[in-house]
Amino acid sequence: MSASQTLGGASRCGWVLGPSLDKIIKNVAWRKHSQLVSACKSVLDKLEALADEPSDPASCTPLYGLSSSDAEFLLQPLIAALESGYPKVVEPALDCAFRLFSFGLVRGCEIREDASVIFRLIDSVCKCAAIADEAIELAVLKVLLSAVRSPCIDIRGDCLIYIVRSCYNVYLGGHSGTNQICAKAVLAQMMIVIFTRTEENSMLVDVKNVSVFELLEFADRNLNEGSSIHFAQTFINEIMECKDSPLIAKSPMELQNGSKSTEEGPDKESGKSADGTADVSEYSRIREDGFMLYKNLCKLSMKFSAQENSDDQILLRGKTLSLELLNVIMGNAGPIWRTNERFLNAVKQFLCLSLLKNSGLSVMTVFQLLCSIFRNLLLKFRSGLKSEIGIFFPMLILRVLENVLQPSFLQKMTVLSLLDKISEDSQIVIDIFVNYDCDVEAPNIFERTVNGLLKTALGPPPGSVSSLSPAQDMTFRHESVKCLVRIIKSMGSWMDQQLKVGEHNPIKSPDSENVAESPSYHIDDASNADYELHPEANSEFSDAATLEQRRAHKLEIQKGTALFNRKPSKGIEFLINSKKVGSSPEEVAHFLKTTSGLNESMIGDYFGEREEFPMKVMHAYVDSFNFENMGFGEAIRFFLRGFRLPGEAQKIDRIMEKFAERFCKCNPNSFTSADTAYVLAYSVIMLNTDAHNSMVKDKMTKADFIRNNRGIDDGKDLPEDYLGTLYDQIVKNEIKMKPDPSAPQSKQGNSLNKLLGLDGILNLVWKQPEEKPLGANGYLLKHIQEQFKAKSAKSEVVYHAVADPAILRFMVEVCWGPMLAAFSVTLDQSDDKEATSQCLQGFRYAVHVTAMMGMQTQRDAFVTTVAKFTYLHCAADMKQKNVDAVKAIISIAIEDGNYLQEAWEHILTCLSRFENLQLLGEGAPSDSSFLNTSNSEHDDITLRNVSYPSLKRKGTLRNPAVMAVVRGGSYDSTSLGGKSPGLVSPEQINHFISNLYLLDQIGNFELNHIFAHSQRLNSEAIVSFVTALCKVSMSELQSPTDPRVFSLTKLVEVAHYNMNRIRLVWSRIWSVLSEFFVAVGLSENLSVAIFVMDSLRQLAMKFLEREELANYNFQNEFLRPFAVVMQKSNSTEIRELIVRCISQMVLSRVSNIKSGWKSVFTVFTAAAADERKSIVLLAFETMEKIVREYFPYITETEALTFTDCVKCLITFTNSRFNSDVSLNAIAFLRFCAVKLADGGLVCSEKSKDDDSCSQVLKDNAVDGQTCTDKDDYAYFWIPLLSGLSKLTSDPRAAIRKSALEVLFNILKDHGQLFTQPFWANVFNCAIFPIFRITVDIKDSVPLHPDGNIWDSETSVVAAECLIDLFVHFFDLVRTQMHGVVSILVGFMKSPGQAPSSAGVAALMRLAADLGSKLSEDEWQDIFLCLKEAAESSLPGFVKLLKIMDNIEIPDVSPDTEIELSTVHGVNNDGSEDDNEKLQTMAYIVSRMKVHINIQLLVIQVVTDIYKIHWKSLSANIVTILEIFTSISSHSHELNSQTTFLLKLDKACSMLEISGPPLVHFENESYKNYLNFLHDLIVNSPSLSEEKNIEGELVSVCKKVLQIYLECSGFEYVSQNKPRANCILPLGSAKKEELAARTPLVLSVMRILGSLERDSFRRHASQLFPLLVDLVRSEHSSMEVQRVLSSIFQSCIGPLVCK
User: Fold this and answer.
1) For residues 446 and 453, what is the distance between their CA atoms, to the nearest angstrom?
2) CA–CA separation, 62 and 84 (whole Å)
3) How confident is the model at residue 1545, as a pLDDT?
4) Which residues have a Cβ under 8 Å from the Cβ of 394 and sit 6 or more positions away?
5) Residue 1578: CB partners within 8 Å, gap ≥ 6?
6) d(Cα 273, Cα 276) in Å, to the nearest integer?
7) In the list 585, 897, 1534, 1673, which could disulfide-bond 616, CB 3.0-4.6 Å?
8) What whole-number distance in Å separates Cα of residue 966 and Cα of residue 1221?
9) What is the Cβ-side half-sphere exposure of residue 549, based on CA atoms within 13 angstroms?
10) What would you report as the CA-atom Rg of the chain, rounded to the nearest whole angstrom?
C-alpha cells in the first residue's frame, strides 16, 4: 500500500501515471519493447523529483501543475504504450489516459494540430480501436468520451471530427453488439455535450446523461445481447460521473487546496471567453466546432450508395446513425437555434436538405428517424421554418396518411404515432391551422390531416382492393380515431388555458405534458419549446378577426381556383367579382403565374381562347417573362414550365406567336424577324412531342429537323450547328410540363401537390430505387434548394401567433364533420372497448369545445349522436359501449352544463329513458298505472291489477309497459314501442334483462348528481336546463301510452336546489316553469294535472318560507300559475284542488305572503264565479277568515292588494248559489270600508300619484269618465264603491237592496273624509252609474214591468238614499246638483207608478230641505231639468202620432179576441196584418199614457215647488212660464185633433182598453197654469206688471172658455154670423167631456170674478161675448150658471150701471 502511494512522486499527475507505468512495465515484453520499459522507468524516476508548480492553474500546459516540457516527457511512454498494439500494454495505458482526462489533469487551450502532445495522445487512443479486442474498444470509447467531456481541454476542428469518426468506426465495425451500442451511446452523449456547450458558448455546462433505451427506439434493437442496454447505460453513467479518484479524496489538506485551484482553471478560462464580446455576439471557437460537426453529420446522412453497390449496409448504418445523432441534437436544441440566424440557417441549409434527400428512401428506420426529426423541427422551429414545414408535412405525413388502399403498415403506423405525439401539443395544433390553413400561399395542413385521419378511420371504400389485412386495417382505424381524439382534446385544453389566462398573459406557457413525455436526453428546459415566440423578425401576434379575414380570403381563392379548374373563364370572373384578383390583364396574368393549385392544362386552354380579355391576359403573361441572354431552347423550356399547351393547333399558334414576339424583343439580335422565332418554336414543340411520345414509331432525325427548318430565317437557313444543338437538347432532355390532373393518384393528394408545387419533388424522391443517389435529377434537387432559400429570404413569410380562443371556431368548422363521422362510424361498427372509449372521449372533448365556443349546430350534432348511441330507446339491443355512452352523456352534463343550452333536451331525454329502464328492472309499477286518463277504464283496471316483480328475478314477465320497451322505437319517438307492431320473442326479453344488469354500472347517484349539480350552473345555463327539462317532462306526461312523472319530480327538485339564486335569475327560471305548470295543469289527463298542481303546491310552500321584501312582485309571479289554471281549467277537481292549495298556503304562511296576495285573490275571484257550489263555499270560507282575522296582512306590503280583495268580495256577492254568501260578502265590503276609513292600510304613505293607482281608477271609470284623485286612500275607495254600485243591478232583490243600503251607508258614514273633487269622482264612478243604468233599462222596456231590474221598493229606497246623501253632504256635493236632479227627473219619467212617485217625492224633499240654501242658478237648473223632461218625450210622441195617422183601423166584430201578449198573434177570423195593426195601436196608447203622466208630474212638481218657495223663485218665473205654456199648448193641441181622437177611441174600444186621459191632461195643465198666473199676480204685483202676467191670465181664461163653448156645441156659432134658431142636444160623450171640463170653467170664472174692477174693465170687451155664449150653452152642472150669474152681478153689472 505504501509502495503504491510513493509511485509517481508528489504531483497529482504522478499519482495517476506512476501506478499505470508500473503496470505497463510489468505487462510488457522487455525484450520486444525495451525502449518502452526504459522510457517508463525514466518517467518514474522523473516523477519522484517533480511536484505541482504553484503556477497559474489556467495556463495551457498539457498536464496540471507541470511545465510543457515535463508534460511531454511524461506522456511519451504512455503514447508509446498505446502505439505498441499489445493488448496487455494498451489496456493500462488507456486506463491511465481515461483517468488523466476524467480527473482534469490533461489540459490544453486548443487541441487541433498534430504537433500537440495531447493530439498525439488522442490519436494514439483512436488507433487502438483497430486492435481486435472488445475490452480495448470499450476502453477507447471511455477515453474519447472522457476527453470530450472534460472542460479542461478544448478539442476542436479536425481533432473533434477524428474522435467522432473513431467512434463511428467502432459502431460500424465493433466486435460485439454491446460494443456497438456503447459506441452509439458515446456518440449521442458527445453530441449532447458538444451542442450544449455550443448553445451556452461555454465549456462549463450541466449535461444530462443519454438514455440508451430511448436511443435504440428506431434502430439496433437487434444488437441487444441480453443486458447490453443496461451495460451501455451503466458504461455511460460511469464515464459522465467520474471526477475524483479515491486517492485524491484521501490526500492532505494542501492537496485539496490544489484540487480547488485546478477547478478554478476552467472557470477562468471560460470566464474569459464568456466575457469577450466577440464570443457572445459572434461565433466563438466552441460554436464554430459545433457548426462544423453539425454540417458533417448532415453531409454524412446524405451519402448514398453507388449504383454498382446498391445494397451497402455499412453506408446505410452510417446514414442511420447520422440521422439518429441529428435527432438527438435537434431534440436537445435550445432557444439559441431559433433566435440565432446562423443556427437557423444551418437547419435550413443542411438538415432540411438531408430530410429532402432521404425522404425518397423506403428504409423504414430512415423514415422513422425523419419523422422524429421532423417532429422536433415542428416542436421547436416552426416559427422559423414555416415554409419548410409547409413542404415536409405533406411529403412525410400526408402522403402516407392519405394512402388508404395500399399503404405500408409500418410507415403508416409511424405517421399515426407521429401525429398522435404532435396532437398532444395543443399549441402546435393551433399554430398549424393559423399559419397554414389560414395562409393563402400555404397548404391546408390541418384540414388535410383531419380528412386523412377520417379516411383512415373509415377504412378502404367498399368494393376496393386493399393490401391490408383486417387486423392491420382495424389497427389503423383505431389509431386514427385516437389521433382525432388527441386533436380535439388539444383544442379544448388550449381553449381552457387561454380562457383562464385572459388578457394578462395571452401567450401560452410551455406544455409540461409534452416535456414529461419527451426522451430523457432532451433538455427539460421551458425555453426549449417553440411556444414563447419572442418578438422576432418573422413572427407576429394576430387576433381572431384578422385570421378570420385571412381564412375567408383563402377559402375564396380556393373556391375560385376550383371553379377555374372546371371552367377557366368562370373562375376568373368569380375572382374578379369577389375582388380577389384585379380586373386588369396584367393582374390576372400575375395570378395565373404565381398561384399554386391551378390546373396547368386549364391555364393553357384559357390562354388559347379567342375572346379579347383572355388574349390580353395571355399577352400580359408572356410579357412578364424576361428571356434576355437565354438560349432559344432554354427560353421555351422556361416559358412552358407554368402551363400546359392546349391540344388545338390554333390555340398553340396564338401562344407561340406571342412567345416569338417576346423572345425577339428581349433578344433583338437573335433572329432576323419574329416570324423565324415563331416557326422555330412551333418546330421545337413538334420535335418534343415526336421524340418523347411512345406512340410515335418513326422518330424525327436531326437531319429531318434541320431540313424542316430550312429557309425560315427570312428565306435563309439557320446555322446547322445551332439547329443540331437545339435538337440534341430537346431529344436528351424533354420539355416536361407538369403532370395532368388525370394522373393515377388520389384526387386530394394531387390537388395538394399542385398547391405546394411539389409534383417534381414527388416524382424525384418517391420513384427512386431504394439506395440510388439522385443522379440525373440533381438539377431538380438544386431547384428545390433554391426554392427553400427563396422562401426563407422572403420577408413576407410571417409566422402568426394567436391567443384568441375564437380561432377555434374556424378550426371546428373544418374538423367537426370528419370527427363526427369518424367517431360515429367507429362507435357503431366496433365493439372494441378501447376504440369505443376513445370515440366517447372524442365526443366529450368535441362537445366541450363546441359548447364553449357557442357553436350550437356542431354542439347539438355531437350531443345528439352520443344520445342516440346510448340505445336507451331500444334497450334490447344495448351493449357495453352503449352503457359507456350513457356515462359519457352524464359526464358531458356535469363538465359542460354551462354551455349546453338547447342540447340539454337530448341529455335529459336519455336520463328519463334510463330511469324508466331502472324502474322496470326493479319491478316498480309504471307511472301510467296511476296516471292513465279516466276514459280508458279497462286499461286502468288492467294496469292496477298487474303485479310488478323484479324483471331480474322473473325474466318471463309480460306486461304492456315491458313489452313496449323491449320492442323499442326510434330515438325521436316520445314513447317507446308505442306504435311498434308485432310480438316480442323470448330471446328479446332475455337480451333486455341482461342489458338491465349492464345498466347497474350506473347508479342512482350519478343520475341524481346531474340534477343536484344544477345549482352550480351559471345564470344562463340554469334557464336552458329548466327549459329543456320542461320539454322532456311535457313529452313524458303527454305520452298516450305511458305517461311518466320522472322529469316532473326532478323539476321540483331542481327548483328546490336553485331557489336560493338571486331573484333576477330565479324570475327567469320561474317564467319557464310557470308556463310549464300552466300547460300541464290544463292537461286533459286529470291525474297528471292533479300531480302537477300538487308539485306546484310543494314548490310554493317551500318558496313562501322565504321572506319577501317590500315592493317586490315575485310571490305574485310564483303563485300566478294557480290563478291561470283556476281561470282556464274545465276540471272541477283541479279547481277545487287549487282552492284547497291556496287556502292551505294562506292559512299556514299568512305572515310570509306579500305580493302573493294578488294571485291569492285572483284564485278566489275565479272560485267565486265558479259553477260549482262547493268551490264557491270553500273559497268563501277562506276568504271570510282572511278578512276577519288577517286583514292587516293583506296590505302590509302592497296597499293596492286591498283593491284585489275588494274585487274578490264583489265577485262573491254575485254568487248565484247562496244568498248568504252574497250578503256576507257585502257585509265584508262594509267592513273593508270601515278599515279603510280608520286608516287600516299599512302602506298609506305609498305614492299618491302611483301609476297603478290611477290605473285602478281608470279601470273603474264609466262611460269614458276618468276618475282621478290625489287624496289619501282615494284610489282605494273607488273600486269598493264602484263594485257595490254595479251590484245594485243584481237580479236578486235582497242583494240589490243590501248593496244600495251598504253603498249609501258607507258614503254617509265616511263621506266626511272625502274632499269635494273626490266626491265628484264618487258620483261619476259609483252613484250616477246606478241610476243611469236603471233609467236606461226602464225607458227601453216600458211594456214589461216584470223585466225591470229594480222593483218599486228598490226605486223608492234608491231615491231616498240619494236625497239623504245629497242633503247630508250638500256643501261638498252641491256641484253634483244637476246630476242628482236629472236622476230624480228620470225617475219621474219612469212608466212605473212607484218610481215616478219616488222621483216626485225625492225632488220635493230636495226642494223642501235645501230650499233656503239653493241659489238662483241651482233653482234654474231644477226647472230646466223639469222643462227638459217635459220636452224630451215630444219628438217620440210626434212619431207615434204619425204612425197612428198611417194606420187604418180594421173593422173588427165585438166578439173578436186579440192576443196582446205576443207581437205576432193571429186573430180567429181576421188576418195577421190586422192583428199587427191593433198591437201597434195598443203600444201607441200605452206610450201616450206614459207621456201624459210625465207631463202631469212635471206640472205638479213645478206647481208644488212654486207654492212653497215662491219667494225664492222670482228669477225663474220665465222658465216656469215656458213650462206651463208648453205643456198646456201641447195638451190643447192633442184634444183638437178630431180625426186622431176618433181613431183612438175606435182602437181603444176594439182593444177593450181605456184611452189616454187627454181631457184630464188638458184640464190639469190649464188649471195649474191659471193658478200659477193668479198666484203670481197676487204674490208679486210688480213682477206681474213687468211681465204682463194679467194679460196672459186673461188670454188663458179666454182660451179655456172657448174650449168649453166648443165642447158644448158653440164651436160654429161663435164663428158664423147667422145663428141657428135652435140648438141640438149634446150626445152622451160630449156630456161627459163637458162635465170633465166644468171644474176648469168654474175656476176660470172665479179667477175672473176675483179680478179688480179696473182690470176686469180693461178686458171686458174680450170676455163679454164668451160670457153671453155661456148663458146660452148647455151645462152639465148648475154651478156654472150660479158662478156665471155672480160674474154678471159683481163684475158686468157695475160696468153697465156706470
Assistant:
1) 11
2) 22
3) 73
4) 443, 445, 448, 752, 753, 756, 758
5) none
6) 5
7) 585
8) 58
9) 5
10) 61
d(CA 1687, CA 1679): 12
Residue 648: active-site member: yes
Among 220-229, 737-746, 1362-1371, 1627-1636, which is the least confidently predicted range? Answer: 737-746
What is the C-alpha separation between 89 and 1273, in angstroms, rounded?
A: 124
Instruction: State which H helix or E strand residue 109 sits in.
Output: strand 108-111
Q: Count CB neighbours of 167 within 10 A.
A: 27
Query: Is there a contact between 1232 and 1161 (Cβ–Cβ < 8 Å)?
Result: no
**∠ at Cα 1055 (1050, 1061), nearest 5°?**
145
* SS3 letters across 1053-1102: HHHHHCCCCCHHHHHHHHHHHHHHHHHHHCCCCHHHHHHHHHHHHHHHHH
- Only one residue has cell 394576430, namely 542
SS3 per-residue string spanning 1005-1063? HHHHHHHHHHHHCCHHHHHHHHHHHHHHHHHHHCCCCCCCCHHHHHHHHHHHHCCCCCH
- Looking at residue 881, its amino acid is K
Residue 1279: is its pLDDT beyond 50? yes
Distance, CA of 1285 to CA of 1279 (rounded, Å): 10
Residue 739 burial (CB count, 10 A):
18
Q: Cα 673 to chain center, whole Å?
A: 72
CA distance 361 to 115: 43
How far is the CA of 576 from the CAs of 554, 562, 573, 587, 591, in angstroms?
15, 15, 5, 10, 11
Is the pLDDT confidence value at 474 over 50?
yes
Environment class of residue 811 by beta-carbon count within 10 Å: exposed (0-12), middle (13-18) or buried (19+)?
Answer: buried
Give CA 632 to chain center in angstroms.
66
Ranking 115-129, 137-151, 305-319, 1340-1354 by mean pLDDT, the lowest is: 1340-1354
Digit-coded pLDDT (tens) for 660-675:
888 888 888 788 788 8
pLDDT of res. 1249? 40
pLDDT at 678: 80
| Catalytic member of 238, 536, 648, 1181 | 648
Give the contacts of 1614 (CB within 8 A, at least 6 positions apart).
1602, 1605, 1665, 1669
Using a CB cutoff of 8 Å and minimum separation of 24, what contacts does 1001-1004 make? 1001/883, 1001/887, 1002/883, 1002/886, 1002/887, 1002/890, 1002/914, 1004/918
d(CA 1474, CA 739) in angstroms, rounded, equals: 113
Contact call for residues 1011 and 1032 (beta carbons, < 8 A): no
Residue whose entry in the numeric block shows the C-alpha cell 317551500:
1102
DSSP secondary structure letter of residue 960: H
Helix (H, G, I), strand (E, B) or coil at 1511: helix
For residues 700 and 686, what is the distance between their CA atoms, to the nearest angstrom? 10
- The grid cell for 1514 is 222670482
Spatial contact of 285 and 135, defined as CB atoms under 8 Å apart: no
Cβ-proximal residues to 964 (8 Å cutoff; 6+ apart), any chain: 975, 976, 977, 978, 980, 1041, 1042
Cell reading at 1061: 339564486
How many residues are present in the chain? 1698
Three-state DSSP class for residue 695: coil
Distance separating alpha carbons of residues 682 and 654, to the nearest angstrom: 11
**Of 1366, 1353, 1332, 1361, residue with least CA distance to 1397:** 1353
Q: Report the amino acid identity of residue 132.
A: A
E-state strands within 1582-1669: none
Q: How far apart are CA 219 and CA 213, in angstroms?
A: 11
Distance CA 218, CA 15 (A): 44
